[in-house]
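Input structure tokens:
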């Protein structure tokens, strides 16, 4: 049976034209996808929800040192924050998340699925069935 955790928080976009503007976001983890975390920005006005999925270990390691390449990189910030850089087709956005939120979220994630036990939570047969269905 899958279990999940979700932490709601406010983040900032320090390299944007409005670096101090608080933006609602959520960190999500589902044990049925044990290697991944989701960073979700809910819909605002006419702007649809935006979701990024990336490695749980990437977020964990990025609290201490710069990691990642490609679409998502993570590094410790200058303040008490974690910087997640999201690279998309139209550019990149740097998201500043409070370090205590990231740490608390990850503690819950690793309590639900300890490191090295991710494979015990994968439903490979179910995943293959979903892929073949469509």
């Amino acid at each position: 049976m899958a279990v999940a955790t979700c932490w709601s928080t406010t983040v900032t976009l320090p390299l944007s034209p409005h670096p101090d503007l608080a933006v609602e976001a959520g960190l999500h983890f589902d044990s049925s996808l044990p290697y991944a975390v989701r960073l979700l920005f809910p819909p605002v006005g006419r702007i649809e929800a935006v979701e990024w999925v990336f490695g749980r270990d990437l977020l964990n390691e990025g609290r201490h040192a710069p990691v990642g390449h490609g679409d998502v990189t993570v590094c410790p910030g200058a303040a008490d924050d974690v910087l997640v850089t999201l690279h998309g087709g139209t550019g990149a956005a740097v998201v500043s998340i409070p370090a205590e939120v990231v740490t608390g979220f990850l503690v819950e994630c690793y309590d639900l699925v300890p490191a090295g036990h991710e494979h015990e939570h994968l439903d490979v047969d179910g995943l293959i069935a979903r892929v073949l269905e469509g």
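The chain has a mean pLDDT of 90. The first strand starts at residue 4 and ends at 11.
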